[in-house]
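Session log. Operator J.P. requested a structure for one protein chain; no other inputs attached. Running the standard single-chain path with token output.
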Amino acid sequence: MMSFSLLRQPHVVFGAGKVSRLPELVGIYGKNVVIVTGAGILERSGTLSVLFEEIQFKSNRCRHVVVSGEPSPEVIDGAVKACRKDEIDVVVAVGGGSVIDAGKAVSAMLPSGEPVERFIEGLPGYRMPDGRKISFIAVPTTSGTGSEATNNAVISRTGDNGYKRSLRHEAFVPDIALLDPELTLSMPIGLTVSSGMDALTQLLEALVSTEGSPYTDAVAMNGLEYVAAYFSRACSDGQDDIKARGAMSWAAYLSGVALVNAGLGIVHGFASSIGGYIDIPHGRLCATLLHAATAENIAILRQKGDEADGALANYAKAGRLFAGEKSLNDNEACDVLLERLESIQEELDIARLGTYGFRKEDVDRIVSLTRNKNNPVALDGNSLRRILLERI
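Structure written below.
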């Protein structure tokens, strides 16, 4: 068996109605609290509003930080500056992946008080974080990024000199992940689609990653089982079905476990380079590129023959799962997988890159910035161009 290592995971509290335990869980760590949310979440959720009032009542200090969109360095630095004198005991993030990333970064940066850009991978003068942090509780309200299971926070700056990179340390995995699918019942269709496609992309890319292991293969396949069975329902008449929402919440969590232990492929390579250049929701970017990227990977792997049997076999496992047909051979199953990914793209009316302002003139720039790390096959510039040009 190959050698591998596994990152620790949070203490997971999962189930409908479990969010009621939030004040109790916060109290484990102390009475000085930072709550990070998206805009308007208290108005949308009466349950959360009541719970936040209870936390405030029991706290000595309770600050509320609101995050809109993907967190920038300025958002993180501003929140840390505002909260540092409060001797914070615990940071709680309640929201989508961007909110959880913001809370994770605030938790990580409060002990040092230094600008977060000094610790973001790939930036000039990068320094490895020392792992100190404030205790952190993640409460996702979407089913997509798996940030509640990962050791990194994605920080973004868009524009000509933009980037989308990670603040990362193994200690930054949340202490508690509180997963209550009832919190996802209010997700609109568009967000359900984009977050679900993010989870699907992460599960599939982890399954064929060059850093995969028997553990991550098992995790990714279990997550894909739930996606195959419930994603379409959650995006249609099952919006208020707690079983479908619970299945997608669990699949999203497993996608985080898989990605943090196996790494991801070319779709997330593009997510970093394109996401730092134009303003496009991460889940939508994954959704629009997944079929084209998977088709290119499978085509190149087939050319390699026996050398690529492992990755093709895993793609085939996913194909048989989506087909519900175990008797398919690997070639047939890979074809079915591609057909299913294409039909999902069409059924859910996934927008092309051009909708967000991406142009043919941008292709070479993005190709030069995109990394192939952990992709099952090394793709050259021509392959990367084909993927992008198909989805402009």
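Operator note: The domain at 11-184 is CATH 3.40.50.1970 (Rossmann fold).
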